[in-house]
Design brief:
36% helix, alpha/beta
């Protein structure tokens, strides 16, 4: 008899004593079984490390979805992800066109002058048609729901930035240790 599995079985946290594929996935302490259903973690901490449209939007969408479901959400911006909360840069985020396999363009075409600008304009237009807010608007909306927005101290120091360089919604500049402390008991998602 060949073993089979579905995506839901793979993603389902294992119960103590279970064996096989389901048991190999560690179950966070905050996920528990209630009858046939599963209770999701009461909070999520999302790390945004990329400074491009396709690097920032997934984290914002995840945080917005969490807040819509009543789940506590914190966003931790590190490295180039800091651009999403940088006062002078957050309105000028571009789509990465060089080496982006999702665009299905040869790398050379993505590197042509203006390619990033054209593709960014196209994506922004498509998102506007779908009523997806711009990054600055989305960040503000998420912050207004009570989500925490934090900048990574190591990255802030690396790039010579200060608290005044960030938008008002950024609550603090914190260390990785402080991030882990605030994330304790919840899920961590790296986008």
């Amino acid at each position: 008899c060949a073993a089979t599995s579905t995506a839901s079985e793979i993603a389902r946290p294992s119960e103590p004593g279970e064996s096989g594929l389901a048991a190999s996935a560690a179950r966070p302490a905050s996920v528990r079984s209630e009858g046939e259903g599963w209770i999701v973690a009461p909070k999520v901490s999302i790390i945004i490390s990329k400074g491009s449209l396709e690097g920032i939007y997934p984290g914002l969408i995840m945080a917005n979805g969490a807040r819509a479901e009543g789940i506590e959400a914190n966003l931790f911006f590190t490295f180039f992800g800091l651009d999403a909360i940088h006062r002078q840069r957050h309105e000028h985020i571009k789509l990465a066109t060089v080496g982006n396999p999702g665009l299905h363009l040869p790398t050379m075409a993505g590197g042509l002058p203006g390619a990033s600008t054209v593709m960014t304009h196209y994506m922004n237009h498509k998102m506007e048609q779908l009523d997806i807010p711009s990054i600055p608007e989305f960040v503000e909306m998420i912050a207004d729901t009570g989500a925490g927005l934090y900048a990574c101290k190591a990255s802030v120091d690396l790039f010579g930035l200060e608290k005044d360089d960030f938008i008002d919604q950024v609550q603090d500049i914190i260390t990785v240790g402080e991030f882990y402390e605030s994330a304790a008991g919840g899920q961590i998602i790296f986008t």
